[in-house]
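Running co-folding for S-adenosylmethionine.
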Amino acid sequence: MSNRDAAPGFGLYVHWPFCATKCPYCDFNSHVRESVDHGAWARALVSEMEHMAALRPGGPLTSIFFGGGTPSLMDPCTVEAVLSAAEQLWGYTDDIEITLEANPTSVEAEKFKTFRAAGVNRLSIGVQALDDNDLKALGRLHSVAEALATYDLARAVFPRVSFDLIYARVGQTPDAWEGELKEALTLGADHLSLYQLTLEPGTPFHALAAKGALTLPDEDESAGMYDITQSLCAEAGLPAYEISNHARPGAACRHNLTYWRLGDYVGVGPGAHGRLTVGPARLATETLLSPESWLAAVGEHGHGICQQTELSPVSCGEEYLMMALRLGEGLSLARFEALSGAPFDLPRAHVLIEEKLLEHDGDRLRANPRGRPVLNRLIAELIA
Ligand SMILES: C[S@@+](CC[C@H](N)C(=O)[O-])C[C@H]1O[C@@H](n2cnc3c(N)ncnc32)[C@H](O)[C@@H]1O
Ligand code: SF4
């Protein structure tokens, strides 16, 4: 891997907080609204970007990510306005990656060509399951056939396409997941995000599980499904480069790598987080969660930031450790020292290295396949 490939990058995250319905497992900042004033949202997103660029000027951007919510519900004019402002404010690298998250419904697929014309060059589709009954149980508005048609269309329009699946679903056996993942791997995507279903507090799924009305596969079954995921994807040439993300060499999502490598990223839209290097300081920004409050705040002050704090070198080091250990490439000891102002305490890692949960190799410290499933324990021991 060249140094350039391992560079943290500089990203822009744009949060679109609206969805056609709220899925019962989802705790993302996503809301259903009867109507959205698209012109007002475009103006507000651009205003907040201008505020952020005054705070953190300079570029160029290496990636932009439209996340949600459901950004494929955006008016393409909004995407275009955001992209042309981004290019003016920070500039682009020649090979900038511009991703948009899409739900696989035909209404959204109709807009693909206009998103592409606006500059989007990577689409991430929320397929979630290749089983119609399970899609219904997940509260999804699309069928498997619709998801596959959307995927085919996306591949014809965008240079890069990824899709998401959720496994360890209600009633799913390891054998059923193995069959489904094999089918998914025949579709030829060069990037897959494969998430184990989690019960998020505050969601209908969480409430049903608390009442005993919904049961997920037990720990052994889920661990089995995780192992199947690792081995099938590796065999197919898409090893995990992060806990839940698999890609062919060179096809990793550069924007997400910027988070995990603790690069700088600007976050705009409701509930977006940012990490900005300003002179010697590293700032953490967070915007108002509620779409209406955020829109009103931007109208009044030009931004919806509700928290802006300077991170201490120690917390930068800890954050880097937590993020980078998720990655197949692991943590760079030199980058840890640059961020935290102190060398990494390697003797503290020795027990975990002896237990064969961590590996140390030159500048790199990584969780090995046995360590990854118990990452929280590793992190707790390393920063305790
Ligand atoms: C911002 S969301 C979704 C983008 C898009 N709105 C969609 O639903 O397709 C990103 C991904 O998180 C995953 N996800 C959301 N909630 C989850 C949960 N409780 N457990 C596991 N994965 C989840 C889904 O795979 C989803 O595609
Ligand atoms: S999973 Fe996607 S479509 Fe469903 S509520 Fe969450 S963000 Fe919206």
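Result summary
Residues 52 and 67 are 18 Å apart (CA to CA).
Residues 313-384 form a domain with the Arc Repressor Mutant, subunit A fold (CATH 1.10.10.920).
Job closed.
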